[in-house]
Amino acid sequence: MNWTLNELKRNCREPFKIAEVIDAASIVKAKNGNVISVSPANVNGFFLLDQLGVFGNFKIEATVILPSTRSLKPVKVPLNFGVNEYYVDAAEHDLSRFEQTDVVVQLKDGLLDLAEVVADNLLIHLPSRILTAEEENGNWPLPKGKDWQLLEEGQKLKTGQTIDPRLAKLKDFFKKQS
User: Fold this and answer.
1) CA 90 to CA 35: how far, in whole Å?
2) What own/partner pairs with CB < 8 Å and gap ≥ 24 does 73-77 have?
3) Pairing verdict, β 104-107 and 74-89
4) Which DSSP category does 36 fall into?
5) Is 168 helix (H, G, I), strand (E, B) or coil?
6) 80 phi and psi, to 5 degrees?
7) End-to-end alpha carbon distance in the chain
8) Which residue has better confidence, 42 or 69?
9) Residue from 78, 76, 59 nearest 20 by CA
């Protein structure tokens, strides 16, 4: 679904309701090669013209399949989030009327493509840590090798393990500073 900014300004004096299923998979996968698949996104909300510009408020629901960050096995990641954005023409350079917390999207050629908006917001909401259920429950061994092992954040070395002698002098570094 595409609208020009002028169309939205003419037709959004009252809330212009959106209830669509948008397939943005090709856009998402083109922008992030790690994405395995994306379900069609349910988009519900509205556009409204206010004193600042065209305001979009909607909720996006979709499921993205991504590789686990530990084992690379596919993991279904359900996404469900709200979007509040202002849309202005890219030629507009004075954005001082907006608060610093406002999300302002400058539209190239004054064209709003809902599939692009959905794809960009899906990409923004992708988690950085993705684990399978087994990995999340600790039933998956962490990688290790000769003289090294991967530890979870907050996990400590088991007693009896030695510290690399090259780094042993650093253990008292901050004690000497005080």
Assistant:
1) 29
2) 73/132, 74/36, 75/130, 75/131, 75/132, 77/126, 77/127, 77/130
3) parallel
4) -
5) helix
6) -150, 110
7) 63
8) 42
9) 59
CA separation for the pair 51, 57 (Å, rounded): 15
Q: How far apart are CA 105 and CA 88, in angstroms?
A: 6
Position 93, amino acid: H
* 118 contacts 24 by C-beta, under 8 angstroms: yes
What span, in angstroms and rounded, lies between the C-alpha atoms of 162 and 158? Answer: 9
pLDDT for 122-155, tens place per residue?
Answer: 999 999 999 998 888 877 777 778 878 777 777 6
Q: Which pLDDT does position 158 carry in this prediction?
A: 63
Buried/exposed 113-148: b ≥16 CB within 10 Å, e otherwise: bbbbbbbbbbbeeeeeebbbeebeeeebeeeeeeee
- Give residue for tokens 């809902």: 114
Contact 37, 64 (CB under 8 A): yes
